[in-house]
Amino acid sequence: MALLRSPNPIQLGYGLAKWFSLGLLFEPGNYLDPNAVRANGVVTLALEPRFYLVNKDRFAWMASLQLGGSTLRIDEQGLTKDQAVYRGRSFGLSTGVGFYFSDHIGLQLQAGT
Residue 65's closest CA among 47, 84, 44, 42? Predict the structure, then answer.
C-alpha cells in the first residue's frame, strides 16, 4: 500500500506580519492498493500557519504546520460497485526556503511530512 501525494499542492497564504503568514493547503493525491484493482483518491485540506525564521529582501527560510483533515475514497469495481470513505485529522510539519526575483515572483523549495 502506498500513498502518492500530489507533486504540486495548491497553497495560498497571506502575510500578517514580517515573521508570520497564514494560509490554506489543498493537496490531492492517489492511494494505491496492493492489487491495483480499485480506483482510489485522497485529498488533504489544511490551515497552514507559517513562521519566517529568516526573512530578508530576496531570501526567506520558513517553518510551517499543516492542521486539517484528509479524506480517502476507495471505489470497488467488481460484480458490485462499492464505495468506502474514510476521514480523519491531518497534521504535518515542513520547512523550506524562498528565493525571490521581485516583490511577487520567486521560487520556493519545501520539504515536509
Answer: 47
Question: What span, in angstroms and rounded, lies between the C-alpha atoms of 69 and 43?
Answer: 8
CA 98 to chain centre: 17
Q: How many helices (H) and strands (E) does the chain have?
A: 0, 7
CB-CB contact of 6 with 45 (8 Å): no
- What's the predicted TM-score (pTM) here? 0.74
- Give the pLDDT confidence of 36-94 residue by residue, as tens digits: 666 688 899 999 999 999 999 899 999 999 999 999 888 877 677 788 889 999 999 99
Domains within the chain, CATH numbers bracketed: 2-112 (2.40.160.20)
